[in-house]
Design goal:
Strand content of chain C: under 5%
Number of strands of chain B: 0
Radius of gyration of chain C: 18 Å
Shape of chain B: globular
CATH superfamily of chain C: Cytochrome c oxidase, subunit III, four-helix bundle
CATH class of chain C: Mainly Alpha
Oligomer: heterotrimer
Structural class of chain C: mainly alpha
Largest interface: A-B, 75 and 79 residues
Helix content of chain B: over 70%
Chains: A mainly alpha, B mainly alpha, C mainly alpha
Structural class of chain B: mainly alpha
Amino acid sequence: MSEVFTKIMARNIFYGGSLFFFLLFLGLTFDTVQSSHKRDHRENITEKVALGKKVWEDNNCIGCHTLLGEGAYFAPELGNVYKRFGNSTAAIMAFIKTRPKEGIPGRRSMPQFNLSDEELEAVAEFLKWTSEIDTNNWPPNIKG
Amino acid sequence: MPYKSQAVAKYYFVAAIALFVGQILFGLVMGLQYVMGDFLFPEIPFNVARMVHTNLLIVWLLFGFMGASYYLVPEEAETELYSPMLALGLFWIFLIAGALTILGYLLVPYATLAEITMNDLLPTMGREFLEQPTITKIGIVIVALGFLFNIGMTVLKGKKTVVSLVLLMGLTGLAVFFLFSFYNPTNLVLDKYFWWWVVHLWVEGVWELILGAILAFVLIKVTGVDREIIEKWLYIIIAMTLITGIIGTGHHYYWIGTPDYWSWWGSIFSALEPIPFFLMVVYAFTMVYKRRREHPNKAATLWALGTAVMAFLGAGVWGFLHTLAPVNYYTHGTQLTAAHGHMAFYGAYVMIVLTMISYAMPIIRGRAAANSERSQLWEMWSFWLMTVSMVFITLFLTAAGVLQTWLQRYTDAPLDFMTTQSKIEIFYWLREGAGAVFLIGLIVYIASFFVGSKDEERTVS
Amino acid sequence: MLKKNIHLPGDLAIWIFIFAELLVFAIFFIVYAVAKNQHPELFLLSQKSLDKTSGTLNTITLITSSYFVALSVLAMQENKVKQSVRWLLAAIVCGIGFLVIKSIEYQHIFSQGIGLDSNLFYMFYLSLTAFHFMHVVMGLIILSAVTVKAYNGGYNSQSMVGIETGASYWHMVDLVWIILFPLVYILP
């Protein structure tokens, strides 16, 4: 067996196969970048939404929550939190604003981030925009 | 040790093990926070502990890979390292930058860290696993380039073997794909799309090249099997890895706003991703079975076989469990992902670094080939303690994940997140218990470097 | 023991590779069949819009090309190097013809604004044919390399592994198309 199946052949399969599938991946990526505007309603990314994403990142929200299922699994999914909170940005803002500084005895609690009103509004708008991405109906239900 | 400059690897290995300890301690903190929500709150909130846990893992694995390369490449190329000074300099730069970053996470609120590191100039922070301040990321690139230069020059001036070429390709890919961490568009969908180019193409792509190369090196050394045969296997395994793994990236593109077709492409190719891991098991056992010599370092052989098996279980089997889109629809972002992540990282990457350390450290420390009988016994105990407890961590998290999926996603009357969490608490307690055993295993592992170090070296009669 | 001397043309590695490729295509075909079973009307309706003439033409082109490759191998077995090279070139021309016809078909489809995300059928149609298209390109690269080597006298009746390897791969590409064409273009 080993005399027909040479190392050179294995090497060629490695180089050829990898190149082949990387090109295919690039092709699919090209199509994704071209066509994803149909799903991400990017026209609604206002300055506020952009600021909201920054607030989201600057406070490492992903360190506890998932967003569209990615992140940490310690706290609830936030991709659909806008809908879960009754399609209300005000409810999101109120929740973040009222987190107790010293936590809740014995329970998990979100830290108090001391966000300004502008930042609160921005992060809520960002979560609203996120909830409107076409995600193939994920999550399966409103509980996230 | 055939080449003097290989000794520089020792610094990297010691640092790797030290950071490994930190990673596990913070893992235990998080495990406790899962069941005692107010533990260390608000001083070390969960997100900080997690950041420290995951970032320490990445950094110590990188230390491990670099140490492995500094040991492996001179021996393969049959020449001294191009510049041991550069290797040492980069070591201190990387260690200090890494330590400062971790201290930054712990000492100031994350938002403040973002501010003082001027994240606004080039915002890259606040994304899972890529939480490092932008300047740290730039530092990582500089260290990686210096490291690649050093290793590349060594290969160039010496013998170019398949093992060192594959290693070099893996390391180059690691550096290249890391560059996507600097791309952070405001459009979350595109942000997530290219975020996976770092994360997936690292762990299910180029890192597997590094894993394959290190495993091949150790197998050549401990089994004495003809290099030609091992290199052929290596090529086939990494070919299958990239053929399945590149399009397999699609299994992350089901629910993040990317087109529908990814659920088909992703499901089909990622379902094939266990193949290279299965081949690796067959290969490792075949090589050991066909060994042409008895190597006195039994522990290293054990680690090598363990790597293949645990990588197959963690990355292959546990990955396959939830990779198909219809399954993933319900399991995405649950404790099942955590279960898979733990066993895959331990099985594939932690164990390969420990394999290399196990093989190289005795030689760097002046032994001819292996530690004393007693030292190896302790090391093998630590292998079993850590590996078995990791299996249990995975099983408990899997149980938690399956229940969570059921209660929160699948029943007719789904519960909300926090209610579900309280119902699966028992599994978090069990996981924390298994985690404590893992820590004991790690302590035994460290002890194995000191126990019996004055005893006579183990030899094969 | 009876079949001990059975001859496997080409390198064993290419056969492992061919089986792996066929496995992937087989999974794709099964998934296609399942999806089609779930949305019969959609598939039937969209299938009607495909250009069957172009598909048929391509089937003929590819089979012819495979035939030429087989003739080339036969010629090489008799040490007729020049003839063998000529058949290889003819096969390559046919392969390029396939790509041209397919490109025209794609252009026609794309000009109607159809893309991967238009509907499930077009997703499969485009994915499967594009995936196959890339295999044709790959096959042509292999055949070209074989042709160059054959032209330079790299093969003879005693040393056929390379040319047989290339031919085997090319037959696989042909075989996949012969399944793909009726499955996607014709079968109601």
